[in-house]
């Protein structure tokens, strides 16, 4: 029982609203939570019965002072053996049928479903790329989705093994090296922001490989898609424009043109920089600051923020870092 109480306590301690499988925010997560409830209930009942019987036997048949006799030696009991074989079989069937049903149900392929929003997820050390193949839009770190459709995901990796996971919306799906593509789907009927995590150890910054799923209504989503395709004015200062071209846009993209590295379009409206520096006007912790401060911190020394990141520390003066950060922070999207 103390063990059980400890488990419950531990589980509820993980109850941060946006990172809890115990507070599902969509039908896929709800079904998975249903399985958890079923198995945990059965396990708790089994544990209670076993503990009560064990406790009774320990007390009732303990050696009493002065008792030197040897207890009755039992060599086997067919009736008991059948009972303790059949009961687990029945329990496994009770757990197994809904589990298989749910697993196969949630594996339904929506990649050809014209009513579903198609999203291609590519994991990189240590960031997430999101492509909407039918909309001609690519973004990073924040997956924006409408709340009124099924979102069909094709997940792959550009390098090592990662796992795509938004605890309150859906279970983990691995992204496997070797060209393997895994598919899944989810629905997010409630607008809001849901925290996602890489759930497979993938290198020194694995624990920093966070992302967000931002759920908005249909009108906002359409505005966002349009805004993502709007051309962006380059920095007014020619020196900054040249720097940006040379130092940033050799890898990054701004806008709908494809690039191997994170698209910076709208980075000024994101909730984080590099997925881990929280953009806020009221910083409380070390990893928090304004968009501009976070961009400065990130550009000035990427390795200090995310060890092992492929983003190099480029040769820039403090003023140049400031100027680029200021320009990027101004890349905001209205939607
Ligand atoms: Cu990517 Cu852990």
Task: Compute the average pLDDT.
Answer: 90
The CATH class of the largest domain, by name, is Mainly Beta
- Alpha carbon gap, first and last residue: 52 Å
The CATH fourth-level homologous superfamily of the largest domain: Cupredoxins -  blue copper proteins
Biggest sheet: strands side by side, in what order? 3-2-1-5-8
The structural domain count equals 3
Main location: membrane
Membrane topology: Multi-pass membrane protein
Keywords: Copper, Electron transport, Heme, Iron, Membrane, Metal-binding, Oxidoreductase, Respiratory chain, Translocase, Transmembrane, Transmembrane helix, Transport
Organism: Paenibacillus glycinis
Highlighted features:
Immunoglobulin-like, five-stranded mixed sheet, alpha+beta, Helix Hairpins, 335 residues, transmembrane helix, 3 domains
């Amino acid at each position: 029982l103390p063990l059980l109480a400890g488990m419950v306590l531990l589980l509820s301690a993980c109850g941060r609203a946006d990172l809890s499988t115990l507070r599902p925010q969509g039908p896929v997560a709800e079904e998975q939570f249903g399985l958890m409830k079923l198995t945990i209930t059965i396990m708790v009942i089994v544990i209670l019965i076993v503990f009560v019987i064990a406790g009774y036997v320990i007390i009732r048949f303990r050696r009493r002072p002065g008792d030197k006799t040897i207890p009755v030696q039992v060599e086997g009991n067919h009736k008991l053996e059948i009972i303790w074989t059949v009961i687990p079989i029945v329990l496994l069937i009770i757990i197994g049928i809904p589990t298989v049903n749910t697993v196969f149900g949630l594996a339904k392929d929506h990649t050809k479903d014209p009513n579903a929003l198609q999203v291609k997820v590519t994991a990189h050390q240590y960031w997430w790329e999101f492509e909407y193949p039918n909309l001609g839009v690519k973004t990073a770190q924040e997956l924006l989705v409408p709340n009124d459709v099924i979102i069909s995901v094709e997940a792959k990796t550009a390098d090592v093994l990662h796992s795509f996971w938004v605890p309150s919306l859906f279970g983990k799906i691995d992204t496997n090296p070797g060209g393997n593509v895994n598919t899944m789907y989810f629905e997010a009927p409630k607008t809001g922001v849901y925290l996602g995590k890489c759930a497979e150890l993938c290198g020194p910054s694995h624990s920093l490989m966070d992302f967000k799923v931002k759920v908005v209504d249909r009108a906002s989503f359409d505005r966002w898609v349009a805004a993502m395709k709007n051309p962006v004015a380059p920095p007014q200062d020619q020196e900054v424009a040249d720097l940006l071209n040379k130092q940033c846009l050799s890898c990054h993209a701004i806008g709908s043109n494809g690039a191997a590295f994170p698209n910076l379009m709208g980075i000024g409206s994101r909730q984080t920089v590099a997925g881990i520096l929280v953009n806020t006007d009221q910083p409380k912790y070390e990893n928090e600051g304004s968009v501009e401060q976070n961009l400065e911190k990130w550009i000035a020394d990427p390795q200090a923020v995310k060890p092992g990141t492929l983003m190099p520390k480029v040769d820039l003066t403090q003023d140049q870092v400031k100027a680029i950060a200021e320009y990027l922070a101004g890349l905001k999207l209205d939607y």
